Amino acid sequence: MQEQPQPILRERNQLTRQIHRHEVLWQITIPIVIGAIIMLTLMVLAVVAPPGTASQLADISVIHLIVPALIFGVISLLMLVGSIYLTIRMILQLPFVFYRIQSFFWLANERIGDFTDRLVAPILRINSSAAAARAFRRSVFGRTRSR
User: Fold this and answer.
1) Which of 44, 54, 127, 142 could potentially form a cystine with 58 if both were Cys, beta carbons 3.0 to 4.6 Å apart?
2) Given this model, what pLDDT does residue 54 score?
3) DSSP secondary structure, 78-115, as one string
4) Which of 19, 13, 6, 7 lies closest to 99 in space, CA to CA?
């Protein structure tokens, strides 16, 4: 009977995760909150301000100018929401994929290092034996003339 494969453990680097959260707070969340507060403040001031002396035709013209921009704005907003959703999905998957790739290269580095060590071992043995023979000859016969 075959054994079921073990599920892949998805580990995250805690240090980079903490740094990422800090950067998200200060580079994304805080500026968006400040911008939203400013926009809400301007909207409240526009509503509370006393009505001007603009004519009814001017108001209709402004509405006709705003509607096309509103339509394009809604389309842009939907595209932005879609790209945010896809980016979140990608961000959730990429750390695990890159961790597996990094683990593969660590393993490859270890195996290649072992292979190269085994490859040069005979040459090192020969050179070590030759050096030991020269040292033995020097100790028995004294110092030989230099080449």
Assistant:
1) 54
2) 47
3) HHHHHHHHHHHHHHHHHHHHHHHHHHHHHHHHHHHHHH
4) 13
